[in-house]
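Hi F.,

I've been meaning to write this up properly since the lab meeting, where we talked about keeping a consistent format for the predictions we share between groups. The idea is simple: the sequence comes first, exactly as it goes in, then the structure tokens exactly as they come out, then a line or two of notes. No screenshots and no reformatting. I'm using this chain as the first example so we have something concrete to point to.
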Amino acid sequence: MKNRSFKKQKNNALTLLFTAVCALYMVPLAVMVLNSFKKKVFISRQPFAIPNPDSFAGWANYQKGVELTRFFEAMGYSLVITVLSVTVILLCTSMCAWYISRIRSGATRVVYSLFVFSMVVPFQMVMFTLSKLANALGLITPLGIVPVYLGFGAGLAVFMFCGYMKACPIAIEESAMIDGCRPLRVFFGVVLPILRPNAISIGILEVMWIWNDYLLPYLVLDLKRFKTIPIAIQYLKGGYGSVDMGAMMAMLTLAILPIVVFYLGSQRYIVSGIMAGAVKG
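Output, unedited:
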């Protein structure tokens, strides 16, 4: 009984501790939302104060920010890039992982090792040559940046898909082949539905990365024509380093709102998918 009581008290203490840590992490988000409704002068004077009748700016910061950044146009570009990139990553890497997992040879082991190695290469090592190559190949549009994201997102996706495939029985695939199914029919009709839980978790992680990414679009895209949300918000900076903090806080709130809603609605798939993809072969 003493051990059970001690264990319960320990669990309660840990719950309180991690609740406090989570609340601490939420403070910057709360400050950002509060300041998005304040007048510019009060943001620097009273950054942690709740808006009052004197400091409350209403929706003026949001209206100004949307106009200055052409926010909805930037959101359209971000949405196109995110949806297309995640779709291509999931389709290509799942097919690659299926082939690597089912065809055991020296070549597939080398390919798998290269994918794993790509995860530990710092982006700063390749960003200069990447921007030059993308410019030379004309990959400076929302459609052109999709294969660039495929290259950077393939390592993690192949690693997780391969781990998941090692736990999937091959008997179902063999039965489909005996019934006359071609490899593509086997993949789309049998393998892809089996990979669904893992694909959802990988898709969530890739969406969060690509939607919030700043550096890669900044280096690759033609910024005179195309700006994603992070880049558009960065352009709120004026001359000599001046920043309209009210409009910036408002646009940051709008920028993170879709991804927060998306994450809260799909977070239950992340842990199950990652655990499923962490099986040793």
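Notes:
The two ends are 42 Å apart (CA to CA).
The chain has two domains: 1-35, 61-276.

If this format works for you, I'll send the rest the same way.

G.
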